[in-house]
Each structure stands twice: as structure tokens, then as C-alpha cells.
């Protein structure tokens, strides 16, 4: 008997419900579901068949606007996936021409053709790894100045479920915890780095009121 993988749609339903009550400003930043035609175009343009978890996530929200809602970077819409991957592939091609495709220590490449980005900001991207059956579905962060994947999760469903758990039950996602700004926007910070002058309050878990 195998364990049922965490559901992307169920995790998004929990995140959405929490945001609607506690952080309406952040909830408003999430886009509506993606147009299936845009998703199909993104797959054709990238030459990749998206994993079901990414399809499910895009069916919930076609990216986000403005500040990140999740702990990492702003979510990409379907058209943003095309643009970010195209830029990354152009940089990879240039690096290969220069002999710089690997990091300075001779480790992993700074980008791989079988990574599909789902969030991006400041040159760093969060991707789903489609390389092999051993890494298929793995979620991680690609930093523009480092090789390989950092801060990995076994799947997008596991990552989103961890976020929903932190909101519903309290706790952290990796090293960051959820906080509310005075105007009820959600932000994620390392607790030791939270500055008093920001007047942030720990995000209320579950049904507690702000």
C-alpha cells in the first residue's frame, strides 16, 4: 500500500481559505485560474509536458501579482513560465559557449533544460525538476549565482501542503514563518530577522482571529 501524495488542489483550497479571512490584501494578489489554452501554449513553447501538479496549480491560480504570497518568489502565470525559461535557456546556451555551464566548483549546471519554473524573482527561480524518474517532480530553488537545486521539497503538493499547515497550525516552512503586516498582508520571514519597527504580528493559526 502506497501513501497518497499531497494534493495541490486541496492545499490551495486551504491556503485560499486562510488568506480570505486573515490576509485579504495578499489573497487579492492571486490570479484566477489559467486559461487552458494558455497552459497548452506554454507547454508547446517550452517543449515540456507539465507535471499534473503544475497543471493543478495553474488551474487554481495563473500566477500572482506584486509581492510574493508564498514563502519564496512571486508565482508565474503560464506566459511567465515561457518567458523565464526562455531567458534561462538563452543564458545556458551562452554559458555553454563560454565553457561556463557548470558552477565554479565543477558541480551542477546553473540551469537544466528539464527544469520548469513556477515562481521567479530577482533572477532566482523556483522550479519543478523533470529530469529523471529519480528526481521527477522534485521542487527546488535555482539561484542565479549558484549551481544545482537548493531548498528542495519532494513535490509541489508537499511544498504547498507545508504552507497550508504553517498557516492552519502555526510553524515554519523551511526557516521562514508567516507574519501579518498592520494592513493584513501576509509576509514570510526568518523569525530571528523580524524587525520591531515593521510592527509585524505572527500569523494567526487556524480559526483564531487576527
UniProtKB/TrEMBL annotation:
Know the name of this protein?
SMI1/KNR4 family protein
Residue ranges of every copy of the Knr4/Smi1-like domain listed in the record? 33-162
Superkingdom is Bacteria
Listed InterPro entries: Knr4/Smi1-like_dom (IPR018958), Knr4/Smi1-like_sf (IPR037883), KNR4/SMI1_regulator (IPR051873)
Annotated PANTHER family: CELL WALL ASSEMBLY REGULATOR SMI1
State the organism named in the record. Answer: Streptomyces zhihengii
Amino acid at each position: 500500500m502506497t501513501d497518497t501524495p499531497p494534493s495541490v488542489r486541496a492545499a490551495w483550497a486551504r491556503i485560499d481559505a486562510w488568506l480570505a479571512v486573515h490576509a485579504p490584501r495578499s489573497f487579492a494578489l492571486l490570479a484566477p485560474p489559467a486559461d487552458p489554452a494558455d497552459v497548452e501554449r506554454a507547454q508547446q513553447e517550452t517543449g515540456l509536458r507539465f507535471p499534473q501538479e503544475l497543471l493543478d496549480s495553474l488551474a487554481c491560480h495563473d500566477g500572482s501579482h506584486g509581492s510574493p504570497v508564498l514563502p519564496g518568489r512571486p508565482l508565474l502565470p503560464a506566459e511567465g513560465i515561457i518567458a523565464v525559461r526562455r531567458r534561462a535557456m538563452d543564458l545556458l546556451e551562452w554559458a555553454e559557449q563560454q565553457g561556463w555551464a557548470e558552477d565554479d566548483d565543477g558541480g551542477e549546471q546553473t540551469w537544466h533544460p528539464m527544469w520548469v519554473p513556477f515562481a521567479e524573482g530577482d533572477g532566482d527561480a523556483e522550479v519543478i525538476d523533470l529530469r529523471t524518474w529519480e528526481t521527477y517532480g522534485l521542487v527546488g530553488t535555482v539561484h542565479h549565482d549558484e549551481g544545482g537545486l537548493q531548498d528542495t521539497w519532494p513535490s509541489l503538493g508537499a511544498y504547498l501542503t507545508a504552507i497550508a499547515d504553517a498557516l492552519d497550525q502555526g510553524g515554519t516552512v523551511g526557516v521562514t514563518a508567516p507574519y501579518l503586516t498592520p494592513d493584513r498582508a501576509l509576509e514570510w520571514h526568518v523569525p530571528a530577522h523580524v524587525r520591531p519597527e515593521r510592527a509585524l504580528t505572527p500569523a494567526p493559526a487556524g480559526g483564531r482571529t487576527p
